[in-house]
């Protein structure tokens, strides 16, 4: 091989090596500090469904109806409980606010699991049902034996596994 070919191979190898190092630093910083503001701005909130109008047009002089907060069903879950892991026995009361789970200190449920990301998963209520969503964690979130790749509905007693920590909804 010629000298020029060897130099080009060395430069390409160094470029790939530096690209790997920069990507690893980016993943580590996202895991420690959360997504950057530039990435956070790209996410748009989900549009809220509009109430169905009856009879085509709505009267202009009709008073605006105020929506009441949804009540939890009597048979619905009331707490998110940790059943396995370092926080076994810990419970978090369910409310209308989403529950953020991860190692970050601003999480609703801070777990000290080596396999958990800073902002690992979120449990939230929508339309009277509870859902769990993986927040692009490194090691994934499991519902039963299934790894999550999109928000999934959860039921009472169904195990949610984040590393060595197992959670479930309880009445």
Query: Could you estimate the helical fraction of the residues in percent?
Result: 10-25%
**H/E element sequence:** HHEEEEEEEEEEE
Give the rounded overall mean pLDDT.
Answer: 81
Could you say which overall geometry the principal axes of the C-alpha atoms support? elongated
Query: Strand-residue fraction?
Result: 25-35%
Task: Write structural notes for this entry.
The chain is an alpha+beta fold. Helices cover 22% and strands 25% of the residues. It contains 2 helices and 11 strands. A 6-stranded antiparallel sheet has the order 2-1-11-10-7-8, with no helix packed on it. Residues 53-64 have low confidence and may be disordered.
Any descriptors?
171 residues, alpha+beta, 11 strands
Structure summary:
The chain has helices at residues 3-33, 37-42, and strands at residues 79-84, 91-93, 99-102, 109-110, 121-126, 129-134, 142-143, 146-147, 152-154, 160-162, 165-170.
Produce the secondary structure layout.
Elements: H1 3-33, H2 37-42, E1 79-84, E2 91-93, E3 99-102, E4 109-110, E5 121-126, E6 129-134, E7 142-143, E8 146-147, E9 152-154, E10 160-162, E11 165-170
Parallel strand pairs: 3-4
Antiparallel strand pairs: 1-2, 1-11, 3-5, 5-6, 6-9, 7-8, 7-10, 10-11
């Amino acid at each position: 091989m010629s000298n020029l070919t060897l130099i080009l191979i060395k430069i390409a190898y160094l470029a790939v090596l530096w690209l790997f190092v920069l990507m690893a630093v980016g993943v580590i910083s996202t895991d420690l500090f959360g997504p950057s503001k530039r990435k956070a701005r790209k996410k748009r909130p989900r549009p809220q469904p509009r109430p169905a109008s009856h009879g085509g047009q709505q009267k202009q002089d009709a008073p605006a109806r105020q929506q009441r907060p949804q009540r939890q069903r009597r048979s619905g879950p009331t707490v998110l409980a940790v059943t396995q892991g370092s926080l076994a026995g810990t419970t978090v009361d369910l409310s209308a606010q989403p529950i953020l789970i991860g190692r970050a200190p601003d999480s609703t449920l801070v777990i000290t699991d080596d396999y958990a990301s800073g902002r690992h998963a979120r449990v939230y209520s929508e339309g009277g049902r509870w859902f769990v969503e993986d927040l692009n964690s490194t090691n994934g979130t499991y519902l039963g034996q299934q790894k999550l790749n999109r928000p999934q509905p959860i039921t009472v007693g169904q195990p949610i596994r984040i590393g060595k920590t197992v959670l479930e909804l309880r009445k």
